[in-house]
Amino acid sequence: MEVVCPIDAQFAEQIAVLLEPPSSLQLQEYFDELITSKQCNGIQVKPTNDYGKGVYADMEFEEEDLILKDQMLFGVQHSSNKIDCLVCSFCFRFIGSIELQIGRKLYLQGLGSPKDCFDLASEDQLENFHCLLLSIALGDVKKLTTVANLVHMLIGTYAILYFVLEKGQKSLSKKALSRFIEHANETNDIFLLAAKAISSTILKYRKLKAAHNKEKEKNHIAEVLGNHNFSLLLKAWKPLSMGYKRRWWDCIALPDDVDACDEAAFRMQIRQLAFESLELLKDAIIDEECLPLFSLEIYGHIIGMFELNNLDLVVASPVEDYFLYIDDLPEPEKKEVDEITQPFLDALGEDYSVCCQGTAFFALQSCMNHSCCPTAKAFKRDEDRDGQATILASRPIKKGEEITISYIDEELPFEERQALLADYGFRCKCLKCIQEQP
Predict the structure, then answer these.
(1) 77, 195, 352, 356 from 71: Cα distances, Å
(2) pTM of the full predicted structure?
């Protein structure tokens, strides 16, 4: 039986407007402004004939030159990775001392795998954390430094979503939010990315509305009935409107163990899974003024956008540097230090240093098209210690040339590459593919 989301029917017109692809002019203006604000000198986002938009060099680059460092719009650490890595839920940089990183990992290894670090946080911590998040939302960053340890000791998913809860709903919504997170951890953590996107849009809407009401009062403007609230929601939604989208259950790749004759049933199951996740999210953070965001159509397109455009999130752990530093110490200093550190290294085992791993969506990097002979690559240098996307030139790039990356292992045979790229909804026609096709 097909699932039905009442919000889809109730707000069909508004949902269609939210999902309408931006015009070429809107895309150009948005990305020009974004590049200027991020001071990403040397690149342009322009329309392309085949793929909607692409990133082009606005200057010459030599091989290994840094082309772009792009701060993510939304990112999430894999739940299985949270035991090994204590990171900031905003920038994904490792936080705290080396002793804290090692001690926390050993402690959690002794406990086993907790369902979620939310379970480890006390009620008082969550109350303080809620106040902190509200202050950050209002721009009061001073409190961020005074309680940074509390912020970072709590897991990011709960943190990002918790601030959108109404104060009078907290006791009920925290339980609902916990159920949503548990469902995502058990099924697909891409739901957490979608929840962050919706939460962020709600927060932007609220800030825009507050500013609008303040300006109205300042100028003694009488309230006029109209669609100004939806206009503000559209403005808050703008960063998400710029990404290429398809519904998740339409674009997700068919698993190898699913027969082609069962494809329709499989895609219906995926739609049902998204609906279950959305219902749990609505129980936790629904906002009556932003109801179109909680439609299954919107939810499916947000997840589909991440499925088609996300980038692996990897940040190297400082724990490895710590033990490498000890290993390079001169004798007899090394022997003296080894007597203290070796028991910890033995207790940690072979996986003594694990990278922070997750998935993220980047506004500018996601505009880069694929090529099996790419001009650039996503590659972290030794100095890149946070969750930003780092794009380096793979070879010299001329001004005006398109900057492309590979979505897959470009060393695979032609047919395997094309099969993998079919998951993204296109057939590659780069020079390498043209030369290798049968």
Answers:
(1) 15, 19, 28, 16
(2) 0.83
